[in-house]
Amino acid sequence: MISLQHGSSAKNGFHGFNGIRNGVKNAEKISHSLALQVLLEKIDQRTYPETIREEIPAIISHWLQSTNEPPLLVGKKEASAWAKLLKSEFGAGTAKKFPVIDYTVVPFPPPKKARFTFIDLFAGIGGFRVALQKMGGKCVFSSDWDKNAKTTYYENYGEVPFGDIRRLSSEKLYSGRVDLVCGGFPCQPFSIAGVSKKLSLGRKHGFEDENQGILFFEVAKIIKRHRPKAFILENVKHLLRHDKGNTFRSILHVLEKELGYHVHSNVIDAKNFVPQHRERVFIVTGKQIGRAHSELQSLREISYAVFCLKKKNSECLIW
Fold first, then answer.
1. Which of 139, 182, 187, 316 is the catalytic position?
2. 38/172: higher pLDDT
3. Among candidates 43, 30, 118, which has minimal Cα distance to 79?
């Protein structure tokens, strides 16, 4: 197992490796954690710019889940070198075939055959991901800047999320097709408690909060870049009323007028599904979703969730 707690290591930003490497030569299959460990140990990370060095564990762990795709930020040349390293270290037979990366020990492994692809933003410990994977979705990019959440996410999914999304929102996060973008962008600038605390400290809130309040616009950049078939965004109920409703109207303007999506939103109370009273606004859409919820063939369950958002909470049994 690999511990992904942040440490002082200049090499990879993480410490606590205790993977067992004896007896795995000529293996047809190796664990994802061992593959990650070996690459972090053998790659000379000093050759990369500092901003990329910070993301190397995320870059490699994402690539290991999709080795047929070029790794983000570094390109095909690095992927070839990494594949050569793994074949040299573990490859079976004289031909040194690339070993299968094994995720069987991961509680929520990636699907063997994906029905759709999605990007998981502000991922936390993976609430959206666990649901979407159960529906056959394959996560092609994840991001969160909280180190403890990233550690848990790795233990759950075998993938290290990227960090500050502001550094990456203008990048093409995945070279293939992205069907869905999901994420709960930070709620503190819009929640009743968060706004009250910021005011008491003399800090700005809403879109004027330059650290958290503007992160919705980073989501919008990613949606514009990848043009997914649908997206699911989540935030606190008070987002609807913040700044006398101007904040939410601005969000709708971006999603509908600037990006061209049909948007549906509603407040869903968690008490209808779990023993907790927790109201959240969900903003869900699809490019052609306004007519009938069956139009997105490969994402029909998500489309049905949009259809449900226009009805009472108790009818949203799909969730």
1. 187
2. 38
3. 43
